[in-house]
Design a protein that fits this description.
Carbamate kinase; homodimer; two-stranded antiparallel sheet; globular
């Protein structure tokens, strides 16, 4: 029987607030067994770009990662956020080890091809982009890998990569070796049936119900890429996807997405 | 018989110049066997502090690491320098994995006690500060650990730590498991017998000759802490200490320090 592995992804809200981050770290420490943490950026990097006088490069309303921006987000995500998180986890008893995709070649990305828009130094994750062997070795040594949203192309170029995509790609890559649960943590208790009612968490959603909720417009636009991503992970062998509040990962209220 | 492990330390010069860094990375790739790389900061962090309007905090002529400075050096060393170096090493065929001291609790430091001067968030390395087990595990997996000059105290606090000290402490900690060579790389071919003659490299220095060279004033003031550090490492079980040019690590001209 395969061991359970829990892959958690956290983003903006919890990373931007020191008190929330500490609460998350404590809750994460209570999660038993093998686990991986993937973190996004938060607002700090945007503020730092401003402080350094780096103007956001936008094309057709989309943010572009130029060389100066890549430098700052690499510093912020792989340096400040990742290391502060690892130090806090270590203090709370989790033997965390921070990684960018370049470290041990753990995630090798491909620079997004230029079609209509040149996104700059942004990485997409093809099949076989994750070094599952290294992650398994670290996990079996008792370590908790903490992945930031910076990858590399194997030719010396770092790349800015979506953290949700990293989380689901890592979960899929480890599904052969582990029974993987993928946990997307955010600022609500789960997927809401009524956006105006925080207590309307839908406990379980299958693929058919998901299509229906989309058709009915119940699921908000911002949630759709996350859930599409989640159902694709289930199709690819991930056992369970959970949408939950970052500060309540050990509480019972959450949305579980299931294969059928 | 123990396996050979080579611990290299690089600093300012080579880190500040992209072309030099690429040359070092190629040379480092040619070094066979188990190896660890420790890197200092370089001038980029100081420039960034200026760009962000953070005034250097000085007390009695010594630089103090206040909270804002620590944030920036963490970003710069653990984020930018470490990740760019790892990505470049990966591209050159070295399976590098970047680490701060917090990662896997690999180096646990102690905040420098306040005596005459409060140095702020600076870490000293007591005995047993290095997690030799983790470094050995990584090395035996075929990885090359790349350590930056940021450590932690185990209670959630990151600390700025001298890279020479990290290199020699790591070398000493691994001397039980490996036959360790410690390589201090800098901008000259070795210890010079005549500061005005770049070709006056002293090929070998033992402890007695070192005392004599100091007495005679042949060894420059800036070199003394590095060499004191080196001879202490030899005393503590490191097999060999080498002082050499960062761009000529595979060339024969260098200074080897020996126990007797």
């Amino acid at each position: 029987m395969k061991e359970v592995l829990k892959v958690f992804k956290i983003g903006g809200g919890v990373l931007d607030d020191e008190a929330q981050l500490q609460r998350f770290v404590q809750e994460f420490g209570r999660v038993q067994g093998r686990k991986v943490l993937v973190h996004g950026g938060g607002k700090g990097a945007s503020q730092m770009l401003k402080d350094l006088g780096i103007e956001p490069q936008m094309v057709q309303g989309r943010r572009i990662t130029d060389a100066a921006t890549l430098d700052v987000v690499t510093m912020f995500y792989a340096g400040k956020t990742n290391k502060q998180l690892v130090a806090a986890l270590q203090a709370a008893g989790t033997n965390a080890l921070g990684l960018s995709g370049a470290d041990g070649n753990v995630i090798r990305a491909v620079k997004r091809p230029v079609k209509d828009i040149d996104y700059g130094f942004v990485g997409d994750l093809p099949e076989n982009s994750v070094n599952a062997t290294l992650l398994s070795t670290l996990l079996e040594t008792g370590l908790t890998p903490v992945l930031c949203a910076i990858t590399h192309d194997g030719h010396g170029q770092l790349l800015n990569t979506n953290a949700d995509t990293i989380a689901s790609t890592v979960a899929r890559a480890l599904a052969a070796a582990y029974e993987v649960e993928l946990h997307f943590c955010f600022e609500k208790d789960g997927v809401l049936g009524d956006l105006n009612d925080e207590s309307s968490v839908i406990p379980q959603i299958g693929p058919e119900q998901y299509q229906q909720l989309k058709t009915e417009g119940v699921i908000a636009a911002g949630m759709i890429p996350k859930l599409d991503n989640a159902f694709a992970a289930l199709e690819a062998g991930v056992e369970k996807v959970v949408i939950e509040h970052a500060l309540k990962i050990n509480a019972p209220v959450k949305t579980v997405l299931c294969r059928s």
